[in-house]
Structures are given as structure tokens and as C-alpha cells.
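pls design
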């Protein structure tokens, strides 16, 4: 799963603490919208006169705090822990303990 795009909420500072930034992740939190066929506004030769009806699946945003990192070693969503590999501080997988970031070579 990859992040498609980030939706920044334009709200006041008071509401920002409760709403915050949201992210749309491909294949997660899908909503179904049932639509009726109806005539379109711009009736030209190129566009059809009737909008197609049916069930449309649409990805909905989720809170940034609910997004998890996928570990490359165990291929599972995991929380991030911080630790040391050698003298470098790196992010570690909470499940298997493998580093999520490569240590910089000095």
C-alpha cells in the first residue's frame, strides 16, 4: 500500500487539535457510493446525455496518527521504536527489531 496524497485540513487552530491532517491510503478505508443515472448539465456530442449509475468505490481519508509503517523484513504493519545500531540512532521495527532506516556510513 502506498500513500496517494495528503489532504491538509484548512481549519482554525482550535479545531486543528481534534481534526488534524489526514491521508488517503490506497486500498484502505474504502466507501461505497450508490448513484442514480441522471442527465448531465453539459449536453454536447462528446459527452453522453445520461450519467452512468451504479456503485462507486471511493477512498476516504484517515488520520495521520493511524498510519503505520510496514517493516521490510517481516512485511507487517508495525509501530516504530528508536534504538542504536553501533553508534547510530535508527528507527527499529517493534515486532522483529530490524532497522527500518539504513544507518549512515561515516
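designed seq:
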Amino acid at each position: 500500500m502506498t500513500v496517494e496524497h495528503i489532504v491538509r485540513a484548512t481549519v482554525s487552530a482550535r479545531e486543528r487539535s481534534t481534526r488534524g491532517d489526514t491521508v488517503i491510503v490506497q486500498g484502505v478505508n474504502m466507501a461505497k457510493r450508490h448513484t442514480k443515472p441522471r442527465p448531465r448539465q453539459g449536453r454536447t456530442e462528446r459527452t453522453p446525455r445520461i450519467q452512468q449509475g451504479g456503485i462507486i468505490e471511493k477512498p476516504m481519508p484517515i488520520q495521520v496518527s493511524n498510519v503505520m509503517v510496514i517493516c521490510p523484513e517481516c512485511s507487517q504493519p508495525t509501530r516504530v521504536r528508536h534504538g542504536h545500531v553501533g553508534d547510530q540512532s535508527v528507527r527499529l521495527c517493534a515486532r522483529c527489531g530490524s532497522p527500518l532506516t539504513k544507518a549512515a556510513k561515516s
